[in-house]
Design goal:
This protein is of the alpha/beta class and about 375 residues long. α7 links the parallel β6 and β7.
């Protein structure tokens, strides 16, 4: 018997609960997110969902997306989910153009993008992924540093050019800093990570960074890398290099603790969550369109305000019920407790706080087919 949409969502929730229980008891899953071989285990009800679902966008979400796809497809064996990590800008544009059913983006839609998408549908932003952006570096003999926003801005603006500069020494008196030249590395593609990073520099660096937040790197020249992986590779390949990326991709590179008030805070999921808790939502957004206005200058204890809030960009109403059901099912898994746990395990992200999670689930529930 074909399940109604309400029945499908209920089945997904039931299967998710069963999967979480099985994971707690032990699993041979090499991914580590509770996914099985894609077949329902004994006693599980099929979801009733089938078909192919395609999205594109943020490279920061890639590790989480792999976990979400594996987990969701293990519960929905007749569904294939594809995701092209082309960057936030590219994903939003593909969504606006109708090339993909949903997009991943490290920044919410701009007003002009909402207007452009209106030719297709009423577009909404749903927070799905919260993560610190790490300032990463490759400097022999140094694995961690303390830096203020002003110092970081002056490094990326080319005003501080060597690692033994007095401003770096002042915050790291015990570090053995060489005279190695600093090589800043930025994203070459349109990136929500870049937008969040430049927003932080603009608001927190005390005037040291003049450019407004933007998806595209605002300065001419310099080293660059395409996507999160390309930037990380460029930092790894050099000596004295420094860049910025989702913390989940930092690997063995050195990481910066940023100055917040009178303390230095490392890029952790807990610190990202504290920064989110100190941040209001954007006003003048339509119902179910949720955008966070990150407070980059918070001095809240333990907060790390260099974060990204990454979104699923979707239609509130799709032209056909099948697409709506697939989007609703997959995004519902992403914002569910099971989905957030999978993301946290795979990418070290911070889970959505209870109130935000409830609103995100309500936004997903509002998605429908024409």
């Amino acid at each position: 018997m074909k399940l109604s949409l309400h029945g499908r969502v209920g089945a997904v929730a039931l299967v998710g609960a069963l999967a979480l229980t099985l994971t707690a008891c032990g699993s041979d899953d090499p991914i580590g997110n509770g996914a099985t071989n894609g077949s329902p285990t004994e006693g599980e009800a099929p979801s009733g969902l089938s078909g192919e679902l395609s999205g594109a966008g943020a490279t920061s979400q890639e590790k989480a997306m792999d976990a979400w796809r594996a987990g969701f497809q293990s519960l929905n064996a007749d569904v294939s989910v594809n995701y092209d990590p082309v960057g936030s800008s590219g994903g939003r544009q593909q969504f606006i153009d109708g090339g993909v059913a949903w997009a991943g983006s490290d920044s919410a839609l701009k007003p002009e993008e909402i207007d452009a998408a209106a030719e297709r549908c009423e577009a909404i932003d749903i927070p799905v992924y919260i993560s610190p952006i790490a300032v990463v570096f490759n400097l022999e003999g140094v694995t961690s540093l303390n830096l203020s926003a002003e110092t970081i801005a002056n490094i990326f603006a080319g005003k501080i050019t060597s690692w033994d500069d007095a401003a770096i020494k002042a915050d790291n008196p015990d570090a053995e800093l060489p005279s190695t030249a600093i090589t800043p590395v930025h994203r070459s593609d349109g990136s929500g990570t870049t937008k969040n990073f430049t927003d932080y520099l603009n608001k927190a660096a005390g005037g040291a960074w003049a450019d407004e937040a933007a998806d595209d790197w605002p300065l001419e020249g310099g080293e660059s890398g395409n996507g999160t992986s390309g930037l990380i590779q460029a930092v790894q390949a050099g000596q004295g290099t420094i860049g910025y990326a989702d913390e989940s991709a930092a690997g063995s590179l050195g990481k910066v603790s940023i100055k917040v008030g009178d303390a230095f805070v490392a890029p952790t999921a807990e610190a990202a969550g504290a920064a989110l808790a100190a941040s209001p939502r954007e006003e003048d957004r339509a119902e179910h369109d949720i955008a966070i206005k990150v407070d980059r200058t918070t001095t809240a204890a333990g907060a790390y305000p260099l974060i990204l809030v990454s979104y699923a960009v979707a239609c509130l109403e799709y032209e056909d019920a099948e697409t709506a059901d697939l989007v609703k099912g997959f995004l519902g898994y992403m914002v569910s407790d099971e989905g957030q746990a999978a993301s946290q395990q795979a990418a070290g992200s911070a889970p959505l706080p209870a109130e935000l999670a409830a609103d995100a689930k309500a936004a997903v529930e509002a998605i429908a087919g024409a």
